[in-house]
Specification:
13% strand; 14 strands; Structural Genomics Hypothetical 15.5 Kd Protein In mrcA-pckA Intergenic Region, Chain A; Tyrosyl-Transfer RNA Synthetase; 19 helices; Rossmann fold; alpha/beta; 45% helix
Length: 419
């Protein structure tokens, strides 16, 4: 049965965490105006930001008006210090401007087709003098509230904290106050790590305006098989920017997600309806080896961030590697794959031993010889025991070379690429 109430949608999808509402069913009684923001500490959002943004989409779908903030002012002073063991290096104003533009562009992708307004807190902070801020804002904030923050205590006991970092919560709190005054914003939607900063805004609205405002935070997404924060790959953070995390790497990240958590990820990171996700999971539970749930997850999230054409290409590339069948790929797809997996470019033929070493599948010729002798070398998915790789084995002047049965130990050999 389809879910119609916002509270039910959030509960079913797992978007339940800390909130100032006594009962989340209060979300169904009034379509509020909300804001959600990201600091431009980088020129791209990460998967963690995406989880919160997907939650915001459900609020918008339920009729909430949304202001999506890019933190030009907070980015200028170093960004949110919460969770950081030491101070971040300050960025030049040109870099902050570049990052703001990049984040705003990603908002257009993530919230495509939605009704939202992008705002930048630098636009209002540039007009405020230091003395005015102390008088009009700092005057209403108890030191006990500031010093009570867990991250402040941790930093005071560790590497220390500077005044700009200490003041960060005041700045974010003022964002909420400003948006409350100018646009009637009464709800901040945020990530789990933003709870303390968000409370500062609720308190300012109460103390200065005598108004009521609320917070709804997204849960921290945990990889159930490892127990650590979801959104990291072997290479580090998974970014939405294709220049930082290529579409191939992005797709593979989701494709390799854990069996225990894949249903949660489908609910959180896709907009597929309940009936469809339940159908996907029934098929998956009948045959987990097929990884059908992961394949659908990878496709849907890649399509959302990089577009349908790119997602379709990644499906084809993944299938070609899984089946060790180069014939499934056109030249552009082969070029794309060549930039992602070990690739050996040769003339008309090459010793299989040399190809194994050049691709990194063997550390030396003697080790390569052992692999061939033990039947651990495969060409296009078939056991290979000959000495030479030549173009007769290739399709579109390329072939797959693999060591052992694990697909990640696959290299691409391309012919006609050298003298």
């Amino acid at each position: 049965m389809s879910i119609k109430k916002l509270s039910e949608e959030l509960l079913w999808r797992g978007f339940v965490n800390q909130t100032t509402f006594k009962d989340i069913t209060e979300l169904d009684n009034e379509q509020r105006t909300l804001y959600f923001g990201v600091d431009p500490s980088s020129d791209s959002m990460q998967v963690g930001n995406l989880a919160s943004a997907m939650m915001v989409r459900h609020f918008i779908n339920a009729g909430y008006k949304a202001y999506i903030l890019v933190g030009g002012a907070t980015g200028y002073i170093g960004g949110d210090p919460d969770g950081k063991n030491e101070s971040r290096p300050l960025k030049a104003i040109e870099e902050v401007a570049h990052n703001k533009a990049a984040i705003a562009k990603q908002y257009e992708t993530v919230f495509a087709g939605q009704d939202f307004t992008v705002v930048d807190n630098y636009d209002w902070f540039k007009e405020i003098s230091y003395l005015d801020f102390l008088r009009d804002v700092g005057n209403h904030v108890p030191m006990s509230q500031m010093l009570g923050r867990d991250f402040v205590q941790t930093r005071l006991e560790g590497n220390g904290i500077n005044y700009a970092e200490f003041s960060y919560a005041l700045i974010q709190g003022y964002d909420f106050l400003h948006l409350y005054r100018k646009h009637g914003v009464t709800l901040q939607v945020c990530g789990a790590d933003q709870w303390g900063n968000s409370i500062a805004g609720v308190e300012l609205i109460r103390r200065i305006e005598g108004g009521e405002a609320h917070i709804y935070s997204a849960p921290l997404i945990i990889n159930k098989s490892t127990g650590i924060k979801f959104g990291k790959s072997e290479g580090g953070a998974v970014w939405l920017d294709p220049a930082k995390t290529s579409p191939y790497q992005f797709y593979q990240f989701w494709l390799n997600s854990d069996d225990e958590g894949v249903e949660d990820y489908l609910k959180i990171f896709t907009l597929l309806p309940r009936e469809e996700i339940e159908s996907i999971m029934r098929e998956f539970q009948d045959d987990r080896a097929s990884r059908s749930a992961q394949r659908r997850l990878a496709y849907e999230v890649t399509k959302l961030i990089h577009g349908e054409a790119v997602a379709d290409r990644q499906v084809l590339i993944a299938r070609a590697v899984a089946e060790q069948n180069v014939a499934l790929l056109d030249t552009d797809a082969i070029d794309s794959l060549a930039s992602e997996i070990p690739t050996v470019s040769i003339g008309q033929e090459v010793s299989v031993l040399d190809a194994l070493v050049a691709s990194g599948l063997a550390a030396s010729k003697s080790q390569a010889r052992q692999f061939v002798g033990s039947g651990a070398v495969y060409v296009n998915g078939e056991a290979f025991s000959s000495e030479i790789l030549d173009m007769s084995l290739a399709t579109a002047d390329a072939l797959f070379l693999r060591r052992g049965k694990v697909l990640k130990n696959t290299a691409l050999v391309r012919f006609g690429r050298s003298a």
